[in-house]
């Protein structure tokens, strides 16, 4: 367990006339109660979209920052809006990626008054391994894309590749600035794990390793994208650049690594302790594999101590044979059917030129939820 890393100077005496009282009131409970964690910055997902970080004192109002992150905020205010956006993307992407499994990343959506992250993220489980990896990838991905879109003035398009393109191709466009994204993203997201504070050294090593796995997957997601040019769509020449795949695809790659993650132990190797595979410790941990220290619960029933919210009332798929099937999702408890009326567009017709008209059709569908 990490010790608390709240900076008490972040809470100046509040006055009724202060324009920040509302914001501080919203986040105070979260800030005062969280423990120091490498993904504590994900609490930024709660920041109101109407709050614009354009003054250094605004950094005091942001939840989840350790001292070095607050310092980066003060020296680079413009970057913080992008980091806040990244925190929202982590939550949204994680929950979409695991929507078909018993653990559906619900623990990442922290209520304001929660005392800390749920144990499935506090402990060194494979779930926390995924969240750390996704968080590291997402923050660098979001910053790299922000450079390309012009949202950050301190960076621009990525460099033109050194290799000569094939005939019919040419470098151009605006490449995603992955280098800047990786530098600034790792500087921010790894800050808490690199602080000299009491806590589990094994957990810190695990989180740093998994964060690096997330960035490695991000590097592999930089692909060539092209746009055609030519008479009548002949595509006689293609303008190409290096762009990142969508975050959803990166998350799916990390989910595959989550499913095959390696359990490790903290063991002396040479002159210091390192993480080594528990069952096959004759080899070192591979740089591209997610690792975890503690086994996860089955997430079938609610267990606050283990961080399981259970699967009661979760929707399941009666015809599926995958993880979203009613047999697996409901853990053998059975399920209840219910009907739902859907209103959809139907009988659409295209009219020249140029619009489409549709009718509205109703249909009844049967759904199932776990007992």
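Q: What amino acid sequence fits the structure above?
A:
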């Amino acid at each position: 367990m990490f010790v608390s890393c709240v900076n008490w100077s972040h809470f100046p005496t509040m006055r009724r006339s202060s324009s920040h009282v509302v914001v501080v009131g919203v986040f105070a409970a979260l800030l005062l109660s969280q423990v120091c964690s490498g993904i504590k910055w994900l609490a930024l997902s709660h920041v109101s979209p109407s709050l614009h970080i354009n003054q250094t004192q605004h950094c005091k109002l942001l939840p989840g920052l350790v001292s070095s992150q607050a310092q980066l905020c003060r020296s680079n205010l413009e970057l913080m809006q992008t980091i806040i956006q990244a925190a929202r993307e982590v939550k949204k992407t994680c929950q979409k990626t695991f929507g078909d499994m018993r653990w559906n990343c619900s623990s990442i959506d922290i209520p304001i008054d929660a005392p800390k992250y749920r144990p499935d993220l506090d402990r060194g489980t494979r779930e926390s391994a995924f969240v750390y990896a996704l968080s590291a990838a997402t923050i660098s991905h979001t910053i790299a894309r922000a450079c390309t879109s012009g949202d950050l003035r301190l960076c621009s398009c990525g460099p033109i590749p050194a290799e000569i393109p094939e005939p019919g191709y040419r470098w151009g466009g605006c490449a995603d600035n992955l280098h800047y994204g990786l530098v600034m993203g790792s500087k921010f997201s790894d800050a808490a794990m690199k602080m000299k504070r009491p806590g589990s050294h094994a957990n810190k090593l695990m989180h740093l390793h998994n964060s690096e796995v997330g960035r490695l997957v991000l590097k592999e997601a930089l692909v060539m994208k092209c746009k055609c040019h030519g008479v009548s769509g002949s595509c006689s020449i293609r303008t190409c650049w290096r762009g990142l795949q969508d975050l959803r695809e990166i998350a799916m790659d990390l989910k595959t690594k989550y499913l095959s993650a390696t359990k490790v132990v903290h063991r002396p190797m040479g002159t210091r302790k390192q993480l080594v595979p528990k069952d096959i410790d004759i080899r070192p941990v591979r740089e591209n594999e997610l690792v975890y220290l503690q086994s996860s619960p089955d997430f079938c029933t609610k267990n606050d101590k283990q961080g399981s919210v259970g699967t009661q009332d979760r929707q399941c798929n009666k015809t599926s044979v995958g993880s979203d099937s009613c047999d697996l999702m409901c853990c053998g408890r059975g399920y209840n059917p219910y009907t739902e009326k859907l209103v959809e567009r139907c009988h659409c017709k295209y009219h020249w030129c140029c619009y489409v008209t549709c009718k509205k059709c109703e249909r009844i569908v049967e759904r199932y939820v776990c007992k």
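Q: And what stands out in the fold?
A: The chain has nine helices and eleven strands.
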